[in-house]
Structure formats: C-alpha cells, structure tokens
Specification:
about 140 residues, globular, 7 helices, Rossmann fold
Length: about 140
Amino acid sequence: MIRLFFDANVLFTAAHNPKGKAALILQLVKHGLWEGITSDYIAQETRRNIMAKYPDRLAALEMLLSDLKCVSSTITYVCPIDLPSKDKPVMQDALAVQASHLLTGDIKHFGRYRNNPKQTMGIIIQTISDFLIAQHLDE
C-alpha cells in the first residue's frame, strides 16, 4: 500500500485551499485510496502557520488532521540527506513510519532529492503535482 507522509506545507495548502490538489489527495486518503500519515511535530507547525495567516481555516485543518494517522515525532533514524535542522525531523519521521512517499512543497530543501529513492532510503520525495502525475491523476 502507498503510505503518504505529509509535510506541513502540504497540510497548510490543503486547509487553505479546499479545492486544490493537496486537498484532493487528502480526500482520497480519507476514502481509503492511500494511507495518510503525519507527525505531531508537523501538525504543530501547521497549526502555528494557519493561526498566523488564516485563523479561520483552523477548523478545516483539524478536520484534515483527523483523517490522518498522527505519530509522535521520534528521532530514531539519522537523517540520510543534507537538510536544515528544522527539516530533518520531517525526513526522520517519514523513515520511522516506513512511508513510501514524503509529500512536500519545500523545493528549496527537498528538491534535489525528488524522485530519487536511492538517496532517501527508499522514500520517494515528491510534490503534490509529482505524485498526481505519477499516479496518472493529473490530467
């Protein structure tokens, strides 16, 4: 089964834009097409960002989070790629839950590792668009 690990920027985008591609993927997770996972570290970051920019979308974010498995952030793996310290827990948590995919909009830090699971211990790092194209759903 495809196990999607969601980064904060994807959750933020889905909560802010309920008609967008990120929200579509989360709806498909809700309906059982894929397994959706995030961590408490990411959930907290997303809540802070939503409250700072779009506090009226906090309830929407909480609904999205309720459809995901939310795990405690644990540092059980050494981060296999070069990332800023704030992004290392994202990769480490994705590894800890044995995600097949890490979905992120952070091209600046994760971009050079996109679609290259040999560099990322088997995890496919993709943007929402990358993932939809790979699943033949972006037409």
